[in-house]
Write a structure and sequence with these properties.
About 60% of the residues lie in helices and about 10% in strands. The chain is mainly α and about 210 residues long. It has two domains: about 140 residues, no CATH class; about 60 residues, Alpha-Beta Plaits. The strands form two sheets. Strands 1-4 form a two-stranded antiparallel ribbon. The chain has a two-stranded antiparallel ribbon with strand order 2-3. A hairpin with a 2-residue loop joins strand 2 and strand 3. Helix 2 runs parallel beside helix 8, helix 4 packs parallel to helix 6 and helix 5 packs across helix 8. It holds the Pfam family Fer4_7. Keywords: 4Fe-4S, Electron transport, Iron, Iron-sulfur, Membrane, Metal-binding, Transmembrane, Transmembrane helix, Transport. This is 4Fe-4S ferredoxin-type domain-containing protein. GO terms for molecular function: 4 iron, 4 sulfur cluster binding; metal ion binding.
Length: about 210
Amino acid sequence: MTNRKAAALRVIVEVGFLFLFFFLLRSRDLQKWFLIFGIGLVGALFLGRFYCGWICPMETLFRPINWLYSKLRVKRLKTPAIFKNNVFRWSILVLFLLLMVAVRIFKIKVNLLLYITAFSVLITLVFEEEFWHRYMCPFGTLLSLFSRKPLFGMKVEKPPCVSCGICQNVCPVSAIETEEDGMKIDTSECLVCLKCKESCPKISIKYSVLK
């Protein structure tokens, strides 16, 4: 599939799920979205973090923000070094799970998913996407655990790759690492957003079966 067709398909899928998200919100039945996330979580074992790049409403809402900021040449803050650790990341996940339990036990009428989505947009207005995707999103943390060794994922073909670093610059979560013989994509962090594939001048990046 060509980059243009893949990009068009991704937009169609994203918009479709975003409409579904708002439909469930209007129906006051947003809890059903957790079923979709559950499917994405299991799917991460085989497809990687496909949910993040193609389904998640947060990522879909980030796209127009990114487009507007690029046009206006607005630069956002980088992830503060103090938050770049697993302790912070897993603490956020534990806090989120405790809040879910508390909402259930005390029957609090609040939709955590809605507030988290709104909070993610506010965070991304100020900080680069990496901060939310890699260190703050509780859903992303779970998906990173399930997508450590997926069956399919983004892969860099070493012979064509010239280590130009373009893919690293466009990756929203810094999931691409430099090795002695080329570039390597960390599947546990990769959102499968295809930005690296679309920007690669040597066409050395593809979504395929991983060895």
